[in-house]
Design goal:
Blueprint (H helix, E strand, L loop, with lengths): L7 E3 L5 H11 L3 H9 L6 H14 L3 E5 L4 E9 L16 H7 L6 E8 L8 H15 L4 E7 L3 H9 L3 E7 L11 E8 L1
Parallel strand pairs: 4-5
Antiparallel strand pairs: 1-2, 2-3, 3-4, 5-7, 6-7
Helix pairs in contact: 1-3, 2-3
């Protein structure tokens, strides 16, 4: 298992509030839109988001940067298996482009979310989190990294390209009521 040097550490259950906020921030509001759809009756959608983050924390899928006052940046990731996931007619249209792109990134370590609060940008946290993810991928004998970015997220794309990621595919964004300027989802891959 990887050893993380401060300010990096594995996420803890106490980070759930910040993690949900960071995930929604990175996802340009799409996560909250999804959580609203999953919330029951009078359930707070943010409660749904926090619960989803807790699942990933328990699986050891989230690394955070913390300078002592809680998570200020995070990376969520996990391996994609060797078999494509089936996409049937009943597969939700909103998620179809994501799954189609993930199916092109088999046997890779997938960066699901990389987020940093604006006031902590420019400190190299994204690069440090990506380096930790790459080590986790190597520890699992994976030979490539993958990430899906929004076509209008130029800052994220520049970060990944600086780290050797290249575009391999793009698919149109399906918004289904989610308000966005994103036109395409772009799959980037980096060999290790």
């Amino acid at each position: 298992m990887i050893t993380l040097e401060p300010p990096l550490r594995f996420a803890r259950e106490a980070d759930a509030r910040e993690l949900a906020d960071l995930v929604n921030f990175a996802g340009q509001g799409l996560p909250l839109y999804i959580w609203e759809g999953l919330a029951r009756d009078d359930q707070d959608p943010w409660e749904v988001g926090r619960a989803r983050q807790l699942e990933r924390v328990r699986k050891g899928q989230i690394v955070v940067a913390d300078f002592g006052d809680g998570a200020v940046a995070s990376l969520t990731g996990y391996p994609i298996g060797s078999e494509p996931k089936p996409i049937g007619d009943d597969f939700p249209a909103l998620f179809r482009p994501f799954q189609e792109l993930e199916n092109k990134a088999l046997e890779s370590w997938y960066v699901n979310v990389l987020a940093c609060y604006p006031e902590y940008r420019g400190r190299g946290l994204g690069s440090r989190l990506l380096s930790a993810a790459e080590q986790m991928a190597r520890d699992q004998q994976l030979r490539r990294m993958s990430v899906i970015v929004a076509s209008d997220n130029a800052g994220a794309r520049r970060l990944y390209e600086r780290h050797g990621y290249e575009e391999v595919a793009a698919l149109p964004c399906v918004n289904e009521g989610w308000e966005t300027d994103t036109e395409h989802w772009v799959l980037l891959i980096r060999p290790l």
